Amino acid sequence: MKQIFRFFQKVAAGGDGRGYSVPAGRRIYAIGDVHGRADLLNDLLALIDQDNSKRSPAVKTLIFLGDLVDRGCQSAQVVQSTCQLQASDENIYVIKGNHEEAMLAALDGNLRAFKFFLMYGGAATLRSYNIPEKNIRVEALPDLLRTFISTIPPHHVDFLRHAIDFLEIGDYFFTHAGVRPGVSLSNQAAFDLRWIREPFLSHSRPFPKLIVHGHTPEEDVQIRSNRIGIDTGAFETGRLTAIGLENEDMWFVQT
Question: Which of 108, 148, 155, 231 is the most buried if burial means most Cβ atoms within 10 Å?
């Protein structure tokens, strides 16, 4: 198992001077972009269980911030294990990332989306579903797409289709990529929630809630007064990160 990393502090006040909190009796763990690394996800879930067991009793909520698939070689395993987890616990939420969006568009028969999907790590996802390497050729795209559609288990497709765009708990807004400044949280476009970088990342003024997101990989957790980014590039770095939140406290658990 990987080494545990923890950081603990009171949640920083936003630009309006207030602190951020979650409702009493709840403990939240939000997990960044897994990208097909089932090995790291298994390690992180074990570390979360250890961390949770050392704390006082509370209702544990687990949130996946999207991009379960692509790049890593175990996307099918990640989808299967996350699907099983959610089926076993009503306090587990899965947010749809841009990679899931592209994958679902491909599975709807969109060849352009399928080509994009393959260019950005989707070929690894096909391999994880045991599609032979010799079949993964751009020049045979229509045939390859038909193979993919017929190979992926229907319950995996259904699971990904039912992933949510965002989740609000207490003073926190959880989504994959971020939000568009100047637009109310209730009116955010799904495209922005899954794809935005700028002007979100450089925006320095407070949002109505503290945004917890993935999508943009960084060497370490990005803590700002208005957002916290927890995509630590697990596929390449081996560091898969979760943020823990309870009352006004936050900490991080990382492989």
Answer: 231
The pLDDT of residue 168 is above 50: yes
pLDDT digits (tens, 9 = 90+) for 176-214: 999 999 999 999 999 999 999 999 999 999 999 999 999
Amino acid 18: pLDDT:
58
pLDDT of residue 15: 47
Q: Are 242 and 44 in contact (CB under 8 A)?
A: yes
Candidates 157, 156, 152, 203; CA nearest to 178 is: 203
| Strands lying side by side in the sheet with 172-175 | 166-169, 172-175, 210-213, 227-229, 222-223
pLDDT at 166 over 70: yes
CB 69 within 8 A of CB 100: yes
Return the HEC string of the chain.
CCCCECCEEECCCCCCCCCCCCCCCEEEEEECCCCCCHHHHHHHHHHHHHHHHCCCCCEEEEEECCCCCCCCCCHHHHHHHHHHHHHHCCCEEEECCHHHHHHHHHHCCCHHHHHHHHHHHHHHHHHHCCCCHHHCCHHHHHHHHHHHHHHCCHHHHHHHHCCECEEEECCEEEECCCCCCCCCHHHCCHHHHHHCCCCCCCCCCCCCCEEEECCCCCCCCEECCCEEECCCCHHHHCCCEEEEEECCEEEEEEC
Write the CA distances from 199 to 180, 192, 218, integer angstroms: 7, 10, 17
The rounded distance, in Å, linking the Cα atoms of 45 and 40 is: 9
